[in-house]
Write a structure and sequence with these properties.
The structure is a homodimer of 306-residue chains. Chain A is of the alpha/beta class and 306 residues long. The first copy, chain A, folds into 2 domains: 3-110 and 290-305, Nucleotidyltransferase, domain 5; 119-287, ATPase, nucleotide binding domain (Nucleotidyltransferase, domain 5), CATH 3.30.420.40. Helix content of chain A is 33%, strand content 18%. Chain A has 8 helices and 10 strands. In chain A, helix 4 packs across helix 6 and helix 5 (212-220) crosses helix 6. Chain A is globular, with a radius of gyration of 21 Å. Chains A and B meet through helix 6 of A and helix 6 of B.
Chain lengths: 306, 306
């Protein structure tokens, strides 16, 4: 059975682990702090690779950024990684075949091969965290687009008329409403405009200090303000999921990321299926854990080279 | 060279023509009125097929409705076609191989193989008419989804908060704003709310009688109301195109349908490319004509059977 060294490159940590071709870990996951300088980062990659190169068949990277169609380079800017990161030709880092994939795509692939979407040839994986990312499987293949940048589902437009500025400098991206950050922004806006806030258990808090956990706790205490904030967020989330369902007619939509725990899945699934023009979907919670990107990149490296 | 009899089934007309495997017409296009009864429609199909069956290799149908993954049956309801239409097994209509595709998908395929999107492995064809339809090509293949219903891009949601009811009974579908019907609805709404309407050249018209052509003529006469209506429609159109671009990272978006003539392509292309997080697209006017569905179905029937 083939072995793959998989390296997950994040802005704060670089993790690595050896997997077999089924995606089963053959070692502990090891972690390093991400170097701030590009030379140090390349040295770290070389060090990790040299430790395993002889015993593995392929090297895989899961990383932020848009990946070229040859799966050898990062082509976009990557603000959380060192300057020059998109100059690295990963294929030159080892004599073994090297395969690079975007971390959200890689995690989606893991979910499709081993997680909640097993057997679903058409599925959309939505990562709901501080932002919204995603990966899309069509007929058992990753959607990559002309330049490897496809599946930027966080940038679906939720309103056409310029209301909320997004971190990407555009307006009204889905992620500026339906992510964790979006929920906080909605909490702040409604604290400033809703009459219910004056009676809320959070009435003495600064609007910009109200957190997702405050809102979720508030619902349990039947706090009208918290309920309105959550319903508004839930509706923003619903809207994008309806669009994705009508576009892809997928078997499932899988929610991963930290915000997944706050979703009422069966309620949201019913709402989606009551508002679409394609056939019904399943709305599922992701099964893969934090190592999804690493596992998915390992599986992809195997698939592409076998 | 192979020959394909292609039949386009619409609510008012049934057209047919024989093509070669390159999509070149080998006969005049013949048209019949669409029968109202299912038995008469099946008889008409059989009559057309029997006239050409011996001299062609394949039979193709382009039709409204969602098509099953085997391309033999219509699986959705088709309000403009006779009751029982989705019971027809098209594969039983001829001894030659029969291939059925949704008319918007077939037209998109023609645009990809012979029209504005030639060479674009990833492209989105948007049909802007009284409604919005479309077809999507990914890696040179039609996006069909789990049940053949994918690419319902007219049902992308433009607002999350229930403003305008769509003909599909849901709210705020893109097509209820960015189609021809959508432009008319916007003209009516703004006639009732915009102060500029009182000074407009259309001030004596009933708001619901203002047409797309009125608005386009009004712009030429520098009518402020007409300009605001058009800008609003243009912005609604832009919003959906941005979402599609961020999702698919396509090489191009091709606009077909009657509303295409009103679009300022280079302005709209710049606006899209200035508001996306993927790499730039080309915005193109469709080259194929009314027979696009018939041509595309013929080409698909050849591809699938060759």
């Amino acid at each position: 059975m083939k072995k793959i060294l998989s390296i997950d490159v994040g802005g704060t940590k670089i993790s690595h682990c050896v997997f077999n071709e089924k995606g089963e870990a053959l070692s502990e996951i090891k972690k390093h702090s991400s170097p701030k300088k590009i030379e140090e980062m390349i040295d770290l990659f070389k060090k990790i690779i040299s430790e395993h190169e002889k015993s593995v068949d392929y090297i895989a990277f899961a990383t932020a950024g848009a990946i070229n169609l040859q799966n050898t380079k990062v082509e976009s800017s990557t603000p959380n990684l060192p300057n020059g990161y998109n100059k690295i030709d990963f294929s030159l880092l080892s004599e073994k075949p090297v395969f690079v994939e975007n971390d959200a795509n890689a995690a989606a692939w893991a979910e499709y091969k081993l997680g909640a979407a097993v057997g679903h040839q058409n599925t959309v994986i939505v990562t709901l965290g501080t932002g919204i990312g995603g990966g899309i499987i069509i007929n058992g293949e990753l959607l990559r687009g002309k330049s490897g940048r496809a599946a930027e589902i966080g940038s679906i437009k939720l309103f056409p008329d310029k209301r909320r500025k997004c971190t990407c400098n555009n307006y009204d991206c889905w992620e500026s409403y339906a992510s964790g950050t979006g929920l906080k922004t909605t909490a702040k806006e409604l604290a400033e405009s809703l009459i219910e806030f004056k009676e809320s258990i959070y009435k003495n808090k600064q609007p910009n200090e109200i957190t997702t956990h405050d809102i979720v706790s508030g619902i349990k205490e039947n706090d009208s303000y918290s309920i309105k904030v959550f319903d508004c967020w839930h509706n923003h989330l619903l809207s994008g999921l309806i669009s994705l369902t009508n576009i892809f007619d997928p078997e499932s939509i899988v929610i991963s990321g930290g915000m997944g725990e706050f979703i009422r899945f069966s309620e949201l699934e019913s709402e989606i299926n009551g508002s679409i023009v394609v056939s019904p979907i399943k709305l599922l919670l992701a099964k893969m854990k934090n190592d999804a990107g690493m596992v998915g990149a390992a599986l992809l490296a195997y698939e592409k080279n076998k």
